[in-house]
Write a structure and sequence with these properties.
binds 4'-deoxy-4'-aminopyridoxal-5'-phosphate; 17% strand; Aspartate Aminotransferase, domain 1; 2 domains; 14 helices; four-stranded antiparallel beta sheet; seven-stranded mixed beta sheet; Aspartate Aminotransferase, domain 2
Length: 404
């Protein structure tokens, strides 16, 4: 059992008022709030060990390097990667995905196929489209049903020896649907395709086990899991990371440079050109420690309660429709009210201190599927409460009355 009041006290922003009302923060899918321990770790880095890493013999540089590499080790353990050098620091999920699509530009040929899903965030669509334009490969899309679930029979039918890459998100940001990624990974491997999982929305709720999943790449962002913005991880299997060319050229990623030829550093440095977000990388480790101290089993159990409660309470409102009614869901409720633009509801409830997301959630194909301009998305974290859900439901009712 989680002591929610104690947890809430660890997040200073949660005791703020917004527009004169206590903040109700339900935009966790966009970014999570940060506990004091994470904020303190960022300050401590700059106060005590700030220095550039991997290049100095002086003490501070050693301390910063050690802290950065310890953090890489924490991530390795957290996701159960076989080697620490399979864990690349990035600026976020988007960066990780682009690193991979850039690498595949030298592998794909005209006639090859890339499969994405209809539930993807734009950051897991656009880089693959750009890759297909560059290489002459074809983009195929796994369709979804009215419940927002991917149709696995259609996926099976898309697979062939032409399939070179399959990519899906672990959890959909717009609807909260949890995808059957183990099935997808195994089926894709059976035709020899590589698989990238976009884990951006999964890592705040669960601990991915990349060896058990057997995915080739797993990308995520630190800022959605209580860590700093501008941090992220790309996990890649050693063999794939050795095969792909570097993403960016620069300092740190080389073995030897002459004007005739440059040789590249070993993993992970080959993919980490330039001075990274050192503080962020170190503090991401602190955020992971923090989440593990709360415990992912506790987080999941409590967030499921919030999801069930919010779904039940919201459905009391006449004319309210929830999108993403599939069985397997994370704590996200995406909804609309008959005849009212989501933006109008979002703006009114913001005046009452409630932060939700309105719009297409960077997933326009999903909105096109449902023929809507967008939704109101309430995404819950383990520091939210049922009382906050009650506050939101009352606010939505009020907004509905005002706008009808
Ligand atoms: N994929 C999904 C499923 C997401 O929800 C997000 C962020 N909304 C991203 C990718 C992109 O993450 P970032 O902006 O941190 O790179």
């Amino acid at each position: 059992m989680l002591d929610i009041q104690k947890i809430r006290a660890e997040f200073p922003i949660l005791s703020q008022k917004v527009n004169g009302k206590p903040l109700v923060y339900f935009d966790n899918g966009a970014t999570s709030q940060k506990p004091q321990i994470v904020i303190d770790a960022e300050v401590k880095y700059y106060q005590e060990i700030n220095a550039n890493i991997h290049r100095g013999v002086h003490t501070l540089s050693q301390l910063a390097t050690d802290a950065y590499e310890i953090s890489r080790g924490k991530v390795q353990q957290h996701i159960n990667a076989k080697f620490a050098h399979e864990v690349l620091f990035t600026s976020g999920t988007t960066h990780g995905i682009n690193l991979v699509t850039n690498g595949f530009a030298s592998i794909l040929k005209p006639g090859d196929e890339v499969i994405v899903s209809s539930l993807e965030h734009h950051s897991n669509i656009v880089p693959w489209q750009m890759l297909c334009e560059k290489t002459g490969a074809t983009l195929k899309v796994i369709p979804m049903n009215e419940d927002g679930e991917l149709i696995m029979e259609a996926f099976d039918a898309l697979l062939s020896e032409k399939t070179k890459v399959v990519t899906v998100n672990h959890i959909s940001n717009a609807l909260g649907i949890i995808n059957p990624i183990k099935y997808i990974i195994d089926k894709a491997h059976a035709v020899g395709a590589a698989v990238l999982i976009d884990g951006a929305q999964a890592v705040p709720h669960l601990k991915p086990n990349v060896q058990e999943l057997d995915c080739d790449f797993y990308a995520f962002s630190g800022h959605k899991m209580c860590g700093p913005t501008g941090t992220g991880i790309l996990y890649g299997k050693e063999a794939w990371l050795n095969k792909l060319p570097p993403y960016q050229g620069g300092g740190e990623m080389i073995k030897e440079v002459t004007f005739e030829k440059t040789t590249y550093a070993d993993l992970p440095h080959k993919f980490e050109a330039g001075t990274p977000n050192i503080a962020g990388g170190i503090v991401l480790g602190t955020a992971i420690d923090y989440l593990n101290s709360v415990g992912f089993e506790n987080i999941q159990q409590y967030e499921n309660e919030l999801l069930e409660y919010a779904t039940k309470r919201l459905l009391e409102i006449e004319g309210l429709k929830i999108y993403g009614t599939g069985k397997n869901k994370a704590s996200v409720v995406s909804f609309n009210i008959d005849g009212i633009h989501p933006y109008d509801i979002g703006s009114i409830i913001d005046k009452l201190g409630i932060a939700v997301r309105t719009g297409h959630h960077c997933a326009q194909p999903i909105m096109n599927f449902f023929c809507i301009p967008g939704t109101i998305r309430a995404s819950f974290s383990f520091y939210n409460t049922k009382e906050e859900i009650d506050t939101m439901v009352e606010a939505v009712k009020k907004a509905k009355t005002m706008l009808s």
